[in-house]
Amino acid sequence: MSGRHTAATLRDWSRELDRVGERLAPHFPRIEPRQRALGYLRTLLSDVERKNGWQMAERLGDANPYAVQHLLGRASWNPDAVRDELVRYVSEHLGDPEGVLVVDERGKGEGE
Asked: HSE (CB half, 13 Å, CA atoms) of 58?
């Protein structure tokens, strides 16, 4: 894959994640948790090897995991509504009435 194609693909992914953020925005009454949630989502989808609080905070540019912990444990937002919105998004973009999603915790697909 050429560098040019990779850069274009990354821009497309970034724009699409911004669209996801717009869909999730109504479920966050304050902008700070809304922005933190989008950063958290970007980090979950990133190449960060271990998705723990410290590594995620580092990727987000934080000195410690307190902001991520605050988002997950104390910030005001509706996790059920966010989950439901993400399910709708995934269904709209990847859904197939006959499809099945298989998650491999090792991060590898079958046969790899």
From this structure: 9
pTM above 0.70, yes or no: yes
Q: How far apart are CA 62 and CA 65, in angstroms?
A: 7
Mind giving me the DSSP string for 33-75? HHHHHHHHHHHHTS--SS-SHHHHHHHHT-SSSHHHHHHHHTS
CA-nearest of 42, 40, 27 to 76 is 27
Contact residues for 54 (Cβ-Cβ < 8 A; gap 6+): 64, 65
The Cα-based distances of 20 to 32, 98, 105, 108 in angstroms read: 16, 24, 24, 25
The per-residue pLDDT for range 19-34, each reduced to its tens digit, is 999 999 999 999 999 9
Residue 5, exposed/middle/buried by CB under 10 A (0-12, 13-18, 19+)? exposed
Whether 14 shows a pLDDT value over 90: the answer reads no
